[in-house]
Specification:
- By secondary structure, the protein is of the alpha/beta class.
- The longest helix has 21 residues.
- The chain folds into three domains: 87 residues, Orthogonal Bundle (Fumarate Reductase Iron-sulfur Protein, Chain B, domain 2), CATH 1.10.1060.10; 155 residues, no CATH class; 119 residues, Rossmann fold (3-Layer(aba) Sandwich).
- Helix 13 packs parallel to helix 17.
- It contains 22 helices and eight strands.
- The termini are far apart.
- Helices cover 51% and strands 7% of the residues.
- It is globular and about 65 Å long.
- Strand 7, helix 21 and strand 8 form a beta-alpha-beta unit.
- It has a four-stranded parallel sheet.
């Protein structure tokens, strides 16, 4: 493999001054205690390959593959190191050289762009789970055997992005989102199936060409100037970065229209009906791509505060280990990272008077946690599901 294969931006690569302020915010460093599994350790390895001609060997590949890409290091960095961009470009180079993302993973990611096939495959997975054919070590929450009917458009005020996995596994959240959009006096339009997958998982896997193809389909499916409301934190984060991913003015204009559902509703919370039932006590888990990438986690508190008393975790937003497909590809590390999150949840349960539900605004996070929280009788729900249910009662 040629020495310059990474082709990283020299300015971005040199921005890290190895101060170590990122270390407490890196989930893989926290569970391993090893420098090589930290942001500055990974950047040092990138520099070795890029600047010093170090080999791209199995050890280097492991350090790159085991990053959750939570980007928790970025807000903590005083030098504003763009670690996410460095990691994405490194993985792209490795994927192009077939060092990562084997054929079976590529095949699975390709299926995300074929929505009917995804829905059918999700049903098969649901059946396999109930037949106990899915390894329990993955900790995957039950995939629904049945799902509500697809949403029908009501107007043109906003686009409601439905996505791939979100629509297959948590379509009821789309219905709750539609209810709340309607409750504040707005209408919504649903894109066609050609815009089903945003390409977020393809970014994580280093498949840049495929990501751009997915992004172009999504952009074509939601033309015009209306805001694009997204209720999956990972999808919203990827779509807000289409400008840099696709690299065109049209993609940048599209990205500027994307808004997280909590962000959009928080600006209109006073227009929601006044709840009449008991105020819930809701424990909040921030998905990394909502807190560290989109940085709109305060909107979740504003929205939930309309119907509930919010209870905070004590781990400063540390990653839960879901990381898109990370929990399936790196189950051991993902499980160790999740254990730290569950310990924080347990501390909250022990110290609070009562907690009704855990809120998480990303399907990967909620399903990763739900699988191990069932024995604590603590349901995991999307914030819009919690709010919509409270307003129905």
């Amino acid at each position: 493999m040629p020495e310059s294969v990474l082709d990283l931006d020299a300015e971005k690569l040199s921005a890290c001054v190895s101060c170590g302020l990122c270390l407490p915010h890196c989930p893989t460093f926290r569970v391993t205690g090893e420098e090589a599994y930290s942001p500055r350790g990974r950047i040092d390895a990138m520099r070795g390959v890029q600047n010093d001609g170090a080999p791209i060997d199995a050890e280097f590949v492991e350090f790159m593959e085991t990053c959750v890409q939570c980007r928790g290091c970025e807000p903590a960095c005083p030098s504003n190191v763009q670690f996410g961009a460095l990691m994405e470009q490194t993985r792209e180079a490795l994927a192009n050289e077939r060092e990562i993302t084997p054929w079976w993973q590529r095949l699975g990611l390709r299926a995300l762009g074929h929505h009917r096939a995804l829905l059918a495959g999700s049903t098969v997975l649901a059946v396999a789970q109930r037949m106990k054919l899915v390894p329990r070590r993955l900790g995957l929450a039950p995939v629904p055997l049945r799902r509500p009917a697809p949403l029908a458009s009501t107007g043109d005020d906003v686009w409601l992005f439905t996505g791939c996995v979100m629509d297959a596994w948590q379509r009821s959240t789309h219905h709750s989102t539609a209810e709340l959009i309607t409750s504040v006096g707005s209408t919504y339009r649903v894109p066609g199936s050609q815009g089903a997958c945003c390409g977020a998982l393809h970014v994580h896997a280093g498949l840049h060409t495929e990501t751009v193809a997915m992004a172009e389909r999504v952009m074509a499916s939601m033309p015009g100037d209306a805001p694009i409301v997204v209720n999956s934190a990972g999808c919203g984060a990827a779509m807000k970065e289409y400008g840099s991913i696709v690299g065109t003015p049209d993609a940048q204009r599209f990205a500027e229209r994307v808004v997280d559902v909590n962000e959009w509703l928080a600006e209109r919370v006073d227009q929601l009906p006044v709840p009449s039932g008991r105020r819930l006590r809701v424990l909040v888990q921030d998905p990394c791509h909502l807190r560290h990438v989109q940085r709109v986690d305060s909107s979740v508190r504003t929205l939930l505060g309309h119907v509930a008393d919010v209870v905070e975790l004590d781990d400063d937003g540390l990653c839960c280990g879901a990381g898109g497909a990370y929990s399936a590809l790196e189950p051991e590390l993902a499980g160790q990272i999740r254990d730290r999150k569950v310990a924080s949840i347990d501390r909250a349960l022990a110290s609070a008077e009562s907690i009704d539900v855990l809120a998480s605004a990303n399907p990967g996070c909620s399903m990763h946690l739900e699988g191990v929280l069932a024995d604590r009788a603590l349901p995991v729900e999307h914030p819009v599901d919690i709010v919509a249910r409270a307003l129905r009662s």
